[in-house]
Amino acid sequence: MKIEKRWIVSFIIISLAAITGLLWQHEPASGDVFNTEDSINFADVAWLLTASCLVLLMTPGLSFFYGGMVGKKNVISTMLKSFICLGVISLLWVVVGFSLSFGDSIGIVIDGKTYGIIGNPLQFAFFDQVETKPHQVLGSSIPFILYALFQMKFAIITPAIITGALAERIRFISFLLFICLFTLVIYTPLCHMIWHPNGLLGSYFGVKDFAGGTVVHMSAGFAALAGVIVLGKRKNSEHIPTNIPFVLLGTGMLWFGWFGFNAGSALAANATAAMAFATTTVASASAMLTWVFFDRLNGRKVSALGACIGAVVGLVVITPSAGFVSIPQSMFFGFIGAIVSNKMVYWKKLKQIDDTLDVFACHGVGGIMGMILTAIFAQGENASLLHGGISVFGHHMMALVLVSFFTFGGSYLLFKLTNIIIPIRVSEESESMGLDLSQHGEKF
């Protein structure tokens, strides 16, 4: 059997990373940055361990959610593209991703202070200094290793979300290359700019993103939009979802895991976590019902697929503000987010570019709506437009434009670069055969 050179190169890269990690000289955690283990709060540790497990479960849940929606010839390939992120991004995160996201800031100096665009890539390389002592700023009551692992799960699911837009026509090895480039070039700087204490968007612009509406959903949504433009339409863009029970199962796993996603982002077992837990489920419930009733008002039948999509949209919309808003406000978030995303799903111009599973309409638009609504409703003194924070609202809108251009433009260039290195579109014959057989030699 002939083995393509690209697979040999990929194996060599993995081998070199493993050997380098073994030989890497690790430095002990510095007392200037880390607290002693006596400062660990065991209730917080228990909750964050649980939350990390919940967030990890979301990626298999996403694979069922997407896998049930595609045609029968592409179920396995679609599910695998989500599932493989657990392996690829986990290792990438350990090697350099965490360091780029949360290492010391490298960026712009304003009034004598550095506002970060990216982290020092060597500071936490191969989890150097990522040990059991709590970081003084990043999760000060939990071991730093737990903070790093919790953040890892967010990095994993972000490129997995993109897969739904590219289903049924993207080459597997090209997809692996793209998600590595996306994580390093798009996700890590965005994560640093918003979630690092000295990040440019979070610290200087005051952008609020409690659990990833901007970092995760907007970045994935705009990357998905760029991907479908570069890939082009499928030869047969009409199909019937193969397995609606898979979609229902995936939605349940996502909803369950989202409690770790949002409530876990409080980084402690506290009142904020409890409120985020509550707003998460209320927004999703509101969006689910709004979606199915809005479908009926527009002459469409009430469907299990619509209920599932609505529930997920509600989860997306509430994510950036889960810990910042009240229960009634979260209900409104789900209501308005579902209507806007529903209109986008059925918008003819968006249908023309063939976003297979409407990733941009749900995650991209949902993330945008969440960011705007957060800037309007987030509670606290001068925290949002309704609380006297006119400048905060303006900064959010500026950041919205910057993030949109950065994630779409950057992803578009990365797809083009990937296509130069390894063609990203499968052949017409492979597409007709289905990616399960042509790419993986398996059948659903």
TrEMBL record:
Residues 46-443 form the Ammonium transporter AmtB-like domain. Its main location: membrane. It is found in: Cell membrane; Membrane. It is a multi-pass membrane protein. Pfam families: Ammonium_transp. SUPFAM superfamilies: Ammonium transporter. It comes from the Bacteria. The chain crosses the membrane at residues 7-25, 45-67, 79-102, 144-166, 173-195, 215-232, 244-261, 267-292, 304-325, 331-347, 359-377, 397-415. Keywords: Ammonia transport, Membrane, Transmembrane, Transmembrane helix, Transport. Belongs to the ammonia transporter channel (TC 1.A.11.2) family. PANTHER family: AMMONIUM TRANSPORTER MEP2. This is Ammonium transporter. The lineage of its organism: Bacteria, Pseudomonadati, Bacteroidota, Flavobacteriia, Flavobacteriales.
